[in-house]
Amino acid sequence: MLKPSRITRLVTLLSLFLIVQSCGQYHRLLRSDDYEKKYEMAIEYFYQGDYGRTIALLEDVIPVYRGTAEAETINYYYALAHYEQGSYTLASHYLKTFVDAYPRSEHAEEFLFLSAYCKYLESPRYSLDQTNTREAIRALQNFINRHPESEKVADANDLIDELRRKLERKRYNKANLYMKISDYLAAAITFESLVKDYPDTRYREEAFFMAVKAYYEYASRSIPQRQEERYEKVLQAHRELARRYPEGEYIEEADRLRDSAQKAIAELREMDLPAAPEREVPEPEITEQELLEINQ
Fold first, then answer.
1. Global pTM exceeds 0.85
2. Which residues, 6+ apart, have CB-to-CB distance to 186 below 8 Å?
3. Are 194 and 207 in contact (CB under 8 A)?
């Protein structure tokens, strides 16, 4: 009777033999011109979960079967193999290519959603460049527009909401960073754009207040000849906040900034100021690299 340790060694050796034999058969097939066998084995490898071999074999097969009845099936497995392999950038491309090539396919709706979903999966964390996030939103919205009755519409809308929250957090952090580096005009404009582009943002009330504060800091640091018009922006931003949140948590501090701005305007109107220079003395600028980091 064989001992357990010998049985284990025999099983291991047999497994290694089968693996080596399988690899040899695969590489011989890959070098061959038997495209029918390549097609057959590519599908078999797909259902075995060996998506790398599926892709490699189908890459040889696709040009040969282009324009034939089998082409749709081949491109179906080729796109899906990339998705199952986790190559989401390529998968998104090939899934969308399949939809464009076979718009009446029974898989067209599913693949259009998966193509957009791949872009969603490629969306990075909020602090990084959000190009992929915006592309994912456009792709998901395109799916909704083309298949408004699909059962996947609710999922697509949920994904869009999640991606938009990422973008609004990015915008909010950018505005706060502008405040931190004392670029108050950029901060004010960015806070205002936050509530304009994301009207349901959780930062809405705070953003209205921070616009007031940023405009105040910008005005108070300006040359006297420019201060009145810039303090007027403080009053305008305050009205926006007070209209929406008359009893909000920031209204008292905003009122103090408004009162200070009104007092400054009154004093400025009593002063005999010379005409403003054509150009103000610029404040120290941040480096180009810092600007790139802020806007990514």
1. no
2. 178
3. yes
The tens digit of pLDDT for each residue in 212-254 reads 999 999 999 999 999 999 999 999 999 999 999 999 999 999 9
Place of tokens 């919205």: 141
Average pLDDT on 121-125 reads: 95
Please state the separation of Cα 187 from the chain's center in Å: 22
pLDDT > 90 fraction of the chain, expressed in percent and rounded: 78
Supply 246's token pair. 């008359």
Tell me the two tokens of residue 257.
């900034």
Query: In the structure encoding, which two tokens stand for residue 109, read together?
Result: 């709706």
Closest by Cα among 129, 128, 161 to 144: 161
| Total count of residues recorded for the chain | 296
- For the chain, give the mean pLDDT: 89
Query: Which structural domains are found in the chain, ordered by start?
Result: 181-271+286-295 (1.25.40.10)
Torsion angle (degrees, nearest 10) of CA 29, 31, 34, 40: 40
Cα 80 from Cα 46, distance rounded (Å): 9
